[in-house]
Amino acid sequence: MKTLRIRTLAGIFVVAGVLSWAAAKLWDTFGTLPGVPLAAPVVLALIAVALFATALSIRSRLRAQRERQPGAKGVDPLAAARAVVFGQASALVASLVVGMYGGTGIFLVMYKLDMDPRREQAIYAGLAVLAGVAVVAAALFLERVCKLPDDEDRHRGAPAQRTR
């Protein structure tokens, strides 16, 4: 399984942000810009909490297993792989959403901050950006927790060492 690249996430963020800013500017000239829902930062924050809690759970179980504590519950490799895939998908979608709300928020700050409803929309967009960044950070942390030690050797070109 390939790891996420910060460069890819940043590229998605920048492209989505520029397109969202341009679309918001165009949409505002023809009519009323749709509002940023209050649920956006809430849902993103809940996803970030779920990813972070999963990462902490897997990390503690791996630590207990590594230290050979009695009664330590192991980590199912398939469950860990599913968690990583969920984290990667969440990070990709969150970087898109962060770009989208970031572009809209920048448009609102630049042109429409004098009206009260637009100020609230800019705050919601800013909160959505912060929550989306938290999703990306939690997903990268989860991916790091689930990374096998010999994965680093394979990526460097050295043959993987097997222990028995």
List the helices and strands and how they pair.
Elements: H1 6-30, H2 39-66, H3 77-111, H4 116-145, H5 151-155
Helix content: over 70%
* Order of secondary-structure elements: HHHHH
Q: Termini separation (Å)?
A: 23 Å
| SSE-based structural type | mainly alpha
Please tag this protein with its features.
mainly alpha, 5 helices, disordered C terminus
Report on the architecture of this protein.
With 164 residues, the protein is mostly helical. Helix content is 75%, strand content 0%. Helix 2 (39-66) runs antiparallel to helix 3 (77-111). The radius of gyration is 20 Å and the shape is elongated. The chain starts with 5 loop residues before the first helix and ends in a 9-residue tail after the last helix. The relative contact order is 0.19.
Task: Give a short summary of the structure.
75% of the residues lie in helices and 0% in strands. It is built from five helices and no strands.
